[in-house]
From TrEMBL:
<dbReference type="InterPro" id="IPR002881">
    <property type="entry name" value="DUF58"/>
</dbReference>
<dbReference type="Pfam" id="PF01882">
    <property type="entry name" value="DUF58"/>
</dbReference>
<protein>
    <recommendedName>
        <fullName>DUF58 domain-containing protein</fullName>
    </recommendedName>
</protein>
<feature type="domain" description="DUF58">
    <location>
        <begin position="60"/>
        <end position="236"/>
    </location>
</feature>
């Protein structure tokens, strides 16, 4: 059987490729545009790699010290003083940052139809943080995809595509750490309402690889205040768990105590692992959350 001419194949592929591209574009721009806009509202100075090393950017002069080589002396600067000075350059090596975004059913909860779901806020923050990191020359990747961290604008499109998928079938998520690069940095975005053992295991693996980062808990305001009373049916977002009570108000104190214990546990796990922890509410500013995350990664170097 003869094959169709190349020109015919190209003509057939053209409309198909356009259809696929238009379908992809219809899903990507909203999230990526929101992330770009959020990132643009955060005014940051230089990236903060203020460490000496290989690079092109001048950092500072410092007096010569024992162990320095003569070739490192800046003779022009030294000529203006009785002391010899070393010209240091700023470290320019890109670093890898891996972000895990909880995609479980519990993240789809919102206590108000006019308020973003926890998953929407987590995805927005993950992509906006990626925008800032890529602009700073870093490599970024999603733990959920298993692909290695990369830099560049194309990587942001890949991340946006990955973050626009459907939520999983699991009620609660567990941080994913396969392929985590040694000495990288990481961010876990979740409500952390599931089994705490999964978080403990992930942090232990990260610590073994010299990875530091941030645990960022995202909750809906309703989950903080527990405004329920009288007959109430509580169901997990996946529908696998259900509890009915006639006196929901009597559960409030115990619930708030358990929530406080969970936060304390997360903060403790982060501290002993060399990580940072914070809790964010979907009713609060996404900008302040993004600033905290970016600063946390800088402090976790």
């Amino acid at each position: 059987m003869s094959q169709p001419p190349a020109a015919t194949q190209s003509a057939q592929a053209g409309p198909q490729l356009r259809t696929r591209a238009e379908g992809l574009a219809s899903a990507l721009p909203p999230l990526l545009a929101q992330a770009e806009h959020l990132a643009s509202t955060v005014l940051l100075g230089s990236h903060g790699r203020r460490r000496s090393g290989m690079g092109d950017e001048f950092w500072q002069y410092r007096p010569i010290a024992q162990g320095d080589e003569a070739r490192e002396i800046d003779w022009r600067r030294s000529a203006r003083s009785d002391v010899h000075f070393i010209r240091q350059k700023e470290w320019q090596a890109a670093q890898s940052v891996v972000i895990w975004v909880d995609g479980s059913r519990s993240m789809g909860f919102s206590g108000d139809r006019n308020r973003a779901a926890k998953s929407d806020r987590a995805r927005l923050l993950a992509l906006a943080l990626s925008v800032l990191l890529v602009r700073a020359g870093e490599r970024v990747g999603l733990a959920n995809t298993g692909a290695p961290p990369r830099g560049g604008q194309l990587q942001l499109v890949r991340l946006a595509e990955a973050l626009t998928g459907e939520l999983s079938e699991e009620d609660y998520g567990t941080p994913e750490t396969p392929g985590l690069p040694a000495h990288a940095r990481a961010v876990f975005l979740s409500d952390f309402m599931g089994d705490i053992a999964g978080v403990e295991a992930a942090l232990a693996k990260a610590a073994d690889r010299g990875v530091r980062g941030a645990l960022f808990q995202i909750l809906d305001p309703v989950e903080e205040t527990f405004p329920f009373d009288g007959r109430t049916i509580f169901e997990s977002m996946g529908g696998t768990l259900s509890h009915e009570t006639l006196k929901a108000g009597e559960l409030k104190e115990r619930y708030l105590q358990r929530l406080a214990e969970r936060k304390d546990r997360l903060e403790h796990l982060a501290r002993v692992s060399g990580w940072l922890y914070d809790c964010h509410h979907t009713g609060d500013s996404a900008q302040s959350a993004l600033l905290w995350l970016y600063a946390a990664l800088e402090r976790s170097r």
